[in-house]
Structures are given as C-alpha cells and as structure tokens.
Amino acid sequence: MIRIRGIMGVTRHADIAIIGAGPAGIFTALGLLGHNSSASIVIVEKGLPIERRHCPKLKVGHCVGCEPCRITTGFSGAGAFSDGKLSLSHEVGGDLPQLIGADLAQQTIDRVDKVYLSFGADEHVEGLGNETEVRDIRRRAIQAGLQLVDCPIRHLGTEKAQEIYALIEDYLIESGVEILFESECVDVIVENGTCVGVEVRSDGEDATIMAERVVVATGRRGADWLEKLCTRHGIGHAPGPVDVGVRVELRNEVMERVNDVLYESKLIGYPNPFRNKVRTFCQNPGGFVSQENYDGGLAVVNGHSYKQHKSPNTNLAILCSHNFREPFNQPIEYAQKIGGLVNMLGAGHILVQRFGDILDGKRTWPEELARSNVRPTLPDAVAGDITSALPYRTMTSIIAFMQAVDKAIPGFASHETLLYAPELKFYSNRVSMDEKFTTNVENLFCLGDSSGWTRGLMMASVMGFLMGERLATEE
After folding, report:
1. Is it true that the peptide bond before 241 is cis, omega within 30 degrees of 0?
2. What is the spatial distance between Cα 184 and Cα 171, in angstroms, rounded to a whole number?
3. For 247, what's the count of Cα atoms within 13 Å in the CB-facing half-sphere?
4. pLDDT above 90: percentage of residues in the chain
C-alpha cells in the first residue's frame, strides 16, 4: 500500500483539503466516507505515517530532537499517540457542548465510540460500577473543597492506539483519501472573503492545492500557527485561557484505590488566594512520564500509558488555567516563554523536583532522587528547581491544590511526590463559529484542539465527525 510522501505537481485540485491528520482531521474524512461521499479528499500532514512514528529515545535513552517531534506530529496526532484515552462523557473534553448542545455532543460521542470499536478498540470501559466507592471518593473530594468528575474511559493504550490508527490509515487510503505526509501547510488562500485553497511545502518544494472546502485541524501543536493564520486573514477569534502546570508522579500504592475505581480521576478546584481553576488531567496508572518537542526546540512534559507495559508509578497533569483581558492577546506566547525559562534551567531538558523540596524552599539534587521511593520514569529529566521559572500565581495555586487533593487521597502531596515541568496545553485560540462550525471566512473550517473548542482525543474526533457529515450532505 502506498503512503504518499510530499507534493506531486505544482498546482493541484481537490474538493476538500484537510490540514492535519490528527483525530479531528481523520474523523472529518471518516464522516465523509460514512455518508458515501464522492468528494476528492486530500489530507496534508506535517509528520509521518503511523508505521514510521517511532521515537528514537526508546533506543538511545535520550531525546534526539526529531523535527518535527514524532510523538506530537504525524498520523493520529499527539494525544492518540501518547496515552490513547477516550473520555465517554460530554462533561469532559472542552467547550464543544456549549456550541452544539450537550445532547448532540453525547450522541455523537456514542457514535464515534462505535467507530473506534469497529477498528479494534478494547470493549472494556474503565470507571463504570463501584458506585459505593465512587461516592466515598466524591465525599472526600467535597470535604477537601474539590469537584470530582467521574468519566467513563475507554483506554486504547499507547501501543494499541497505534494499531487502531494504522487500520484507520489503511482504510482511508484504500477508500481513495490522498494523504500527503511530510508536507507542511504554509498558508491558506483567501480571496474576497472565501477560502479557495492552501499553500503547501515539502522538501523545499512549494505547491498549491485548490479546494472547494478547507478544514484546518492542526491540534495543540498547531495552535500557535493557527492563531497567526487567524490574524493574517481576519478569521474571527478571541484569546482563551492557557493552561500552565506540572506533571505529578507518585507511587501506584498511593493512587491504588482511585486507579481501581475510576482509572482516571478528574478533580477540579479553585484554591485561594487567586481562585484560578486548577484541575487534574491525563492520569496514567502504571504509566511513564515522557517528553515532547514543539517548534523552536521547546521541550514539554506529558505522560504515556500502555496496555501491557507498566511502571510502579502513576502520573497525571495538574494544570492551572490563566485567563487574560485586554490589552493582552498573546496567551500562547506567554506559555511558551514560561516553558523556555524552565528549559533554560534544565539545559534543554525537562525539570523534576520533589514536592517536599518545594515546600522547604530548596532545589532537588540527583542523589536525592536516587534514594527516593519514587523513581523518575523519565530518566533524562534534570533535578532542579521549577519554582525559579513557573510564575508565583501558578506555583501557589498548584501547591494549594495538591494539598487539597492530599485530603481526598492521602499521600498525594508527600515529600517524595515528583513534579515535572513544564506541562503546557496550547489551545488558547478560540475561533469564532456557529453550531455548524461556520467561520466568517466562507468555505474555511477550524476544528479540534487548535480551534480552542475541544480538549482531548474524543471531542476532537466528535467535532471532525460532525464536520465530515455536514460536508457530505452539502455536496
């Protein structure tokens, strides 16, 4: 089977051009095919096909700075390649239900879930049943001033997700969808308020793809690019919140009850004194902390969770949301600057620090990690002081939140709990659109995490699926 690499021809034509082969872009194509669309579809993807997305760090033991990063870029996108968790409740995954309605969001989640099952997703759903235990955890959370969102999770697993998306990739190609790998969208072409195509570059060669409809679905990695695109072409948008935080790692024994009952606990708080929203995100029982590289060499921390390969630790993100008002309108750049400072302290690596050392006002030393009960699963993380780079408001909120979580989950905020930084989520650009995803630029649609409306694998898939069905009915 042929995977198309690069651009063939200086000017090409397609009915629909999809920018990005992450969940939103993939499910746009699946939604079209599900309605027997006859449209010619081209997907432009900066990264590699799924079968070539292998991180060299697994062999050499350290990040080699692939450009683009094979963890964040390529067929299936970043989230699908890292932990592969499908949240099956409309209450989780961003603000899409506010745009299309909670009922439609939940109905589409159920339909998209069936698509994943048809490609081999595990039928087991985490977090169902155990009502008595869930009530007890919720009671403890309430006593600690926190909100518990219990969401059913279908865990694909990092390695199983790759198998599932490989099957989807094959299906799309066999169905006539053309995928241009290692090809970067440089710009969209807008004439008289209408999008008529895209400019693409591959191996230094430029080409134009003229298209009746253009769908931009570049994911969190492409959020910065999309924000600049919106400014350049007058695409209606407004800055949204940006999430800055840490990834916490602790022993499975501490999280055992929550892991067994809920698999992924989603806790939300608004700790004093600033009352910023702080939440847990992307919990990985028996998982591994990982590094991702963004444009400009920015290294950020994330987490993986495999179906078979397990560690003695659980990791999860703690994210503090920052909302900005006029005249400031650069939330993504703000987060990137913070990440750059953390990287500077770690000589380009992820920083790790023990929670007790933060409270004691000291940095963490490598020899202290070596004799700790919690051994880092990110071996090339640099022991140091993350408080020297994270803003006071962010760090104060995270500390207060962790101490609250400790009341609900004893041992969570122990001296040896590890905090890795920077954990950053780039989906700040909120593109203005209606419930049918129509923007102020005709024939241009912006989907998924880069649009600011979704956060995570399932909701991005839902948005793409609805987009594909709409485009199919308009042929």
Report:
1. no
2. 23
3. 32
4. 79
Confidence class of residue 78 from pLDDT cuts 50, 70 and 90?
confident
Query: Three-state SS for 88?
Result: coil
Which helix (H) or strand (E) is 278 found in, with range?
strand 278-285
Relative orientation angle of helices 23-34 and 158-174, to the nearest 10 degrees: 40
Taking residues 370-382, report their average pLDDT: 95
Distances (CA, A) of 465 to 27, 326, 433, 437: 5, 35, 17, 12
Residue-level pLDDT at 2: 41
Q: How far apart are the C-alpha atoms of 239 and 233, rounded to whole Å? A: 16
Give the pTM.
0.90
Helix (H, G, I), strand (E, B) or coil at 235: coil
Question: What is the residue type of 312?
Answer: P
Of 108, 82, 104, 79, the residue nearest 20 (C-alpha) = 79
pLDDT at residue 47 tops 50: yes
Distance of CA 142 to the CA centre of its chain: 28
Total Cβ atoms within 10 A of residue 115 = 16
Report whether 364 contacts 385 (CB < 8 A). Answer: yes
Q: What are phi and psi of 203, to 5 degrees?
A: 55, 35
What average pLDDT score do residues 282-299 get? Answer: 92
Pairwise CA distance, residues 60 & 48, whole Å: 20
Q: Residue 1: what pLDDT? A: 40
For every residue of 143-190, DSSP letters joined together read: HTT-EEEE--EEE--HHHHHHHHHHHHHHHHHTT-EEEBT-EEEEEEE
